[in-house]
Amino acid sequence: MSETQGPQGPQEERVEAVPQEGGTEATAIDLQQELEKAQNEAAQWHDRYLRSAAELANYRKRVEREREQQFLRLKMDVLRQLLPIADDFHLALENVPPDHQEFAWVEGVALIANKIDSLLQQAGVEPIPAVGEPFDPVYHDALMQEESDDYPQGFVSGEIRKGYTLGGEVLRPTLVRVSSGPRASNHQA
Questions:
Q1: pTM to 2 decimal places
Q2: In this predicted model, what pLDDT tens digit does every residue of 117-128 receive, in sequence order?
């Protein structure tokens, strides 16, 4: 090929190769092989692209899932630190002497306890049902076992400290008393 100057700038002159007899078939086979090779290479690059795109999507999902789990762990840590404070306020309210019930500070303590309870509820914290439920070591910590006419053996007969869950996970198990069954009778036959 050579360049010539035309009215619109440089132009290429094409010189076509004249195929020799018997070479046409060989050239077509060579071109077919080159085409197949290029198609295979293009398919490999396309496959690599699809794999890379899938790996990136999976990576993004994994990072987002890990971020959500880390946020939940941090949230649970903060809420675990708040639970004993809520317990103390409720304990204080339960133990106010009857002659002090009308004092303003008692009402203030009750308001603070209600605000803490509201904050826990807004954060998604839910109390674990205990009394009258079958003992479940996932949700309950047994502190003691006692005889009970009201609850069958293996059922929670009393709650010592309230337990909570957050998003289906135990934030703090309920501290309970477990029934060992009905009291033994003192009658002898």
A1: 0.63
A2: 999 999 999 999
